[in-house]
Write a structure and sequence with these properties.
With 372 residues, this protein is mainly α. It is built from 24 helices and no strands. Among the domains are: 184-290; 302-372, no CATH class. The chain starts with 9 loop residues before the first helix and ends with a helix.
């Protein structure tokens, strides 16, 4: 293999060639292929996975039997799960659903994961029953599988899990519902914001929905905490904005955000103090959507920090688009650092007079930036 990030060793090349020969032999070679799932080389193991998946029904039964009875190294188990997940066999779902009745919870959890990855709609009823399995790992696997399969029935089922408020079952349901992009998930997730146990995860999940309906519940947390809570709100809102752009709902989200969160502008600015870089980047995203000229100086201080410069610059430009005179006003700031930081991103003709005036600024760096 050339031109890539890695190359096969000679030994690996020979093993892959042997795997190809086994696959060509079909059913008689399945046991040997399954034994090769324990290969230490991921490159070789990937060939085994692809071969077993391509053999379809010829390999499905033996793979399921191996998962029930052998289950050797973890990497071999993961490879068997991969092979069944990708299998082209028409009977794969049926065999894996039978696997889900095993007495070993680890086997059942593997079966649930496979069904989810296969988007096996015919397994929804089985997976719903597994949500009540006595083993938490099985319930988590079933939750994630239902989320992967998706659909209205899946969302209804996971909302039911939320209502039980059983810690190890509710947490994964929160995460899956947050990724569902289904507006019906917003109200059930919002109901968890009053619960100390689930508040943080529920707020984050609401952010992942990308829904304008989630903004009021998220910002309601501002009434119940200090700077730490404000930073959580900002992180959730920043995620929501990003998700909204991805799913094409940015305009209603940003309009709702400005209407709801602008009164808390000073809270967000204050929460920059003591925040880590990821939190400050999130706050910058929010400030870019709800800020005005008074916000620019706080963002300008972040422009000299490499980890934050891009977020701060984007936020300042967002403010400049919504408030035409914001950057011009910032150039007149009494803070030298703000003038220095703002000059490189000022591009509007209306700022030309202010920039020319800075050519006579008392600070040499300001004069140099104005010349540029």
């Amino acid at each position: 293999m050339t031109g890539g990030s890695f190359a096969l060793t000679e030994a690996e090349r020979l093993r892959v060639e042997h795997i190809d020969e086994l696959v060509a032999r079909g059913a008689p070679a399945v046991d040997e292929l399954i034994a090769a799932l324990s290969e230490q080389s991921w490159t070789v193991r990937r060939s085994v996975i692809g071969g077993l998946a391509a053999l379809g029904d010829e390999a499905v039964g033996p793979l399921c039997a191996w998962l029930r009875t052998h289950r050797s190294e973890e990497h071999a188990i993961a490879a068997a799960v991969d092979a069944l997940s990708a299998s082209v066999g028409s009977e794969t779902n049926r065999h894996v659903m039978e696997l889900a009745t095993d007495a070993n919870p680890a086997v059942v959890a593997d079966a649930a994961a496979i069904l989810g990855r296969r988007h096996a709609h015919d397994a929804i009823g089985l997976l719903e029953r597994l949500l009540s399995h006595p083993d938490d790992n099985v319930a988590v696997a079933a939750t994630e599988a239902i989320g992967a399969i998706g659909g209205a029935a899946a969302v209804d089922t996971l909302i039911g899990v939320l209502q039980r408020r059983e810690f190890f079952r509710t947490l994964p349901a929160i995460q899956v519902l947050g990724r569902s992009a289904d507006p019906r998930a917003v109200a059930p997730l919002a109901s968890l914001l009053s619960d100390d146990t689930f508040r943080i995860e529920a707020a984050r999940a609401l952010g992942r929905t990308g829904s304008a309906q989630a903004i009021v519940p998220i910002t309601s947390l501002l009434a119940h905490g200090g700077d730490a809570m404000t930073r959580l709100v900002a992180s959730s809102l920043a995620d929501l904005i990003t998700r909204a752009h991805w799913i094409g709902s940015a305009m209603p989200v940003e309009a709702t955000l400005r209407a709801v969160a602008t009164p808390a502008l000073s809270r967000f600015i204050q929460s920059l103090h003591g925040a880590d870089d990821s939190e400050r980047a999130a706050i910058a995203v929010v400030l870019g959507k709800i800020g005005d000229a008074s916000t620019v100086s706080a963002l300008a201080r972040m422009l000299e920090e490499p980890a934050l410069a891009r977020s701060a610059s984007a936020a300042i430009q967002d403010i400049g688009r919504d408030h035409e005179d914001a950057l011009t006003e910032a150039l007149g700031s009494g803070e030298t650092a703000t003038r220095i930081a703002i000059l490189p991103i000022v591009g509007a003709r209306r700022s030309a007079r202010r920039v020319r005036a800075l050519l006579a600024d008392e600070d040499p760096e300001v004069r140099a930036r104005a010349c540029e």
